[in-house]
């Protein structure tokens, strides 16, 4: 069985993403892996009006929300002896969750089946489905 040295968990604040974290923690303990807790601030699809972005206040709200989600995840993981890194990315979530794992040499991506956080309102299509179709890294989808 392949060893997973680096496991990425996509955290978006949804229950599904915390279910994914639970599954990833079990795998990390089994394979002595490092967890990457990743949240993406979706700055790519913010509304624009006549070239003026509404982004400053909205971006801060999205960043605060993502930080809170990551903090909740790190609080859970820090109660274990599993090593982890918390990473906050900016951009289009589907692209970032496809690009970042490749750049970091991630062995397994663990994602929730559905996202329901505040910033999923900006998603066009399913992030999980997109990642599954555009990555060559093993992907575990958790309900």
Automatic annotation (TrEMBL):
InterPro entries: Rossmann-like_a/b/a_fold, Universal_stress_UspA, UspA. Residues 3-142 form the UspA domain. Keywords: Cytoplasm. SUPFAM superfamilies: Adenine nucleotide alpha hydrolases-like. It is found in: Cytoplasm. Belongs to the universal stress protein A family. PANTHER family: STRESS RESPONSE PROTEIN NHAX, UNIVERSAL STRESS PROTEIN HP_0031. This is Universal stress protein. GO terms for cellular component: cytoplasm. The keyword Cell cycle does not apply. Its main location: cytoplasm. It holds the Pfam family Usp.
């Amino acid at each position: 069985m392949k060893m997973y040295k680096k496991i990425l968990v996509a955290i978006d604040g949804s229950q599904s993403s915390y279910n994914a974290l639970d599954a990833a923690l079990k795998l990390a303990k089994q394979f002595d892996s490092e967890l990457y807790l990743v949240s993406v601030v979706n700055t790519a699809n913010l509304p624009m009006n006549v070239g003026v972005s509404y982004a400053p206040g909205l971006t801060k709200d999205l960043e605060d929300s993502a930080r809170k989600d990551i903090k909740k995840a790190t609080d859970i993981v820090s109660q274990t002896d599993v090593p982890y890194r918390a990473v906050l990315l900016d951009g289009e979530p589907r692209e970032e969750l496809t690009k970042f794992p490749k750049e970091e040499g991630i062995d397994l991506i663990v994602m929730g089946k559905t996202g329901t956080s505040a910033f999923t309102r900006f998603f066009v299509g399913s992030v999980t489905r997109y990642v599954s179709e555009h990555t060559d890294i093993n992907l575990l989808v958790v309900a």
